[in-house]
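RECORD TYPE: inverse folding
INPUT: structure tokens
STRUCTURE:
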């Protein structure tokens, strides 16, 4: 496919099961065994302590708890490609609000997002390659701030959400770590 990029060879692990002939999944499973050995149930509720749902991009460079000052149990985190508000994000935020008591939504897009390099041609190429058209849209964008505005509108106008008065959107600069709030009216 011409619109997808391949990971650089430096992304391969240099030690552990993957380097010794295992897979990255083997490495993850081993790390989980070590985690479970030392795990102590923190006794947290499923309801986020801060009553907030964070919708963000899945980009591996985003350390959301550190960037937003959040601890385990503080929020619901919903991540997808681009952090765009899709039907599934609305589903998750609706459950977060109606079943688990959140009232605020924080949207986090970021600079240098991979969705800025894709188009809907990605879907057409997939269809040609596998013989089936994806049911989902790529939701690519050229302007992160404008897409944050669109995502805020989608949430604020959803009939399923109970709380739309505290929906705010930001663009995180991946080189400085700073959040820039997006004015929904611009």
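DESIGNED SEQUENCE:
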């Amino acid at each position: 496919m011409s619109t997808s990029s391949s990971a650089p060879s430096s992304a391969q692990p240099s030690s552990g099961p993957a380097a010794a002939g295992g897979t990255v999944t083997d490495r993850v499973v081993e790390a989980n065994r070590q985690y479970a050995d030392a795990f102590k149930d923190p006794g947290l509720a499923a309801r986020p302590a801060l009553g907030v749902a964070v919708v963000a991009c899945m980009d591996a460079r985003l350390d959301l708890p550190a960037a937003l000052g959040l601890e385990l149990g503080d929020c619901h985190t919903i991540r997808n490609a681009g952090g765009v508000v899709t039907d599934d994000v609305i589903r998750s935020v609706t459950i977060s609000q109606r079943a688990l008591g959140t009232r605020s939504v924080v949207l986090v897009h970021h600079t240098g997002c991979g969705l800025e390099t894709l188009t809907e041609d990605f879907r057409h190429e997939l269809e040609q390659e596998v013989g089936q058209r994806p049911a989902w849209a790529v939701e690519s964008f050229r302007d992160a701030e404008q897409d944050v505005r669109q995502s805020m509108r989608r949430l604020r106008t959803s009939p399923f959400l109970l709380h739309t008065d505290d929906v705010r959107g930001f663009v995180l600069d991946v080189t400085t770590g700073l959040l820039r709030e997006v004015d929904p009216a611009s």
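NOTES: Residues 1-11 have pLDDT under 50 and may be disordered.
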